[in-house]
Design goal:
314 residues, alpha/beta, Rossmann fold, UDP-galactose 4-epimerase, domain 1, 2 domains, seven-stranded parallel beta sheet, 9 helices, 34% helix
Length: 314
């Protein structure tokens, strides 16, 4: 990473983006950072202490050449997207996510600027076994469809331009600091913790045996940083590698928060729902040396200390 002097992060005021930006600033204090965000799913408060440049623009309509001229970046992290999977307007979701990426790639192509972009585990659709990158895309909603098309664009780009490195990261169920502003799309971990801190029984879909690969945002940032060192292009899963049930999550939260709530089971209203997610990490371990550092227990504990510093013991 020593040769990386100028980095651009799209969606840098968002949940994962802001965690990445502040970590880059801390670890690479001499690098010049630029963030692009339109605040649709970001918040300026997430960037408290940020010392770099900020461009407020809509990426789906941004003229990159007009904005940046001949300015060269050593790497672009593309985390901006409509992340609300409940937005079912197929045109808006697909247009904004795909066209933003297309414009970015067209800007990065002449200099073969390294691109690291956020894909999603949602591209796998319904699964009952750990998802492997070679599994075909089976998107169950338009958000997942838009991410699958982005993967297609990335694959075409690296075939067309020799030596251009583009790394896609399929994030699983990410939770952690700087997500509260998202509201409904924020993680289950966040919402259940809020309910329990308010003295309410945590509400989950019956019978709580659905399983998720909950991955802490600090591990996601680490995987993103490792993509700066990737020798070849690729699309990789980023998760904890473990599937944990909703019931287990409530047990972990009870233990961390010092509460003793039983789940309040409700009917699942979603026809297309991922009842199981788990990342097979074989590829990313081999290619990037990624190894998650946080189990659900240690990740939730770290997060709750950040969320409730006065009431959760270290």
């Amino acid at each position: 990473m020593s040769s990386v002097n100028s980095i651009l992060v799209t969606g840098g005021a968002g949940f994962i983006g802001s965690n990445l930006v502040l970590t880059l600033q801390e670890r690479m204090p001499n690098a010049r950072l630029t963030v692009i965000d339109d605040f649709r799913s970001g918040d300026f408060k997430n960037l408290a202490g940020y010392r770099g440049d900020f461009v407020a623009q809509n990426l789906a309509t941004l003229d990159w050449r007009k904005q940046f001229g001949d300015e060269k970046f050593d790497a672009i992290f593309h985390l901006a997207s409509i992340t609300d999977t409940t937005l079912h307007d197929q045109f808006i979701q697909t247009h904004d996510n795909v066209e933003s990426f297309r414009r970015l790639l067209n800007f990065a192509k002449p200099n073969k600027t390294r691109v690291v972009y956020a894909s999603s585990a949602a591209t796998y659709g319904a699964a009952s076994n750990p998802s492997v990158e070679t599994n075909g895309a089976a998107p169950a909603n338009v958000y997942a469809f838009s991410k699958a098309i982005m993967d297609n664009l990335a694959n075409h780009a690296v075939k067309d331009v020799s030596g251009w490195i583009i790394v896609g990261l399929r994030y699983f169920n990410v939770y952690g600091p700087h997500e509260a502003h998202k509201g409904v799309p924020a993680s289950m971990v966040y919402h259940l913790a809020r309910q329990m801190k308010a003295g309410q029984r945590p509400r989950i879909f019956e019978h709580g045996e659905q399983k998720r690969d909950f991955v802490y945002v600090k591990d996601v940032v680490e995987a993103s940083l490792r993509a700066l060192e990737a020798k070849v292009s690729g699309i990789y899963n980023v998760g904890s590698g473990s599937a944990r049930s909703f019931n287990e999550l409530i047990d972990v939260l009870n233990s961390t928060l010092g509460t003793d709530f039983k789940p309040d089971y409700i009917e699942n209203p979603h026809a297309h729902y991922q009842n199981f997610t788990q990342a097979d990490l074989t590829s990313i371990r081999g290619a990037l040396g990624y190894q998650p550092q946080f189990s659900l227990e240690t990740g939730v504990a770290d997060y709750m200390r950040w969320l409730y510093p006065k009431s959760v013991e270290s």
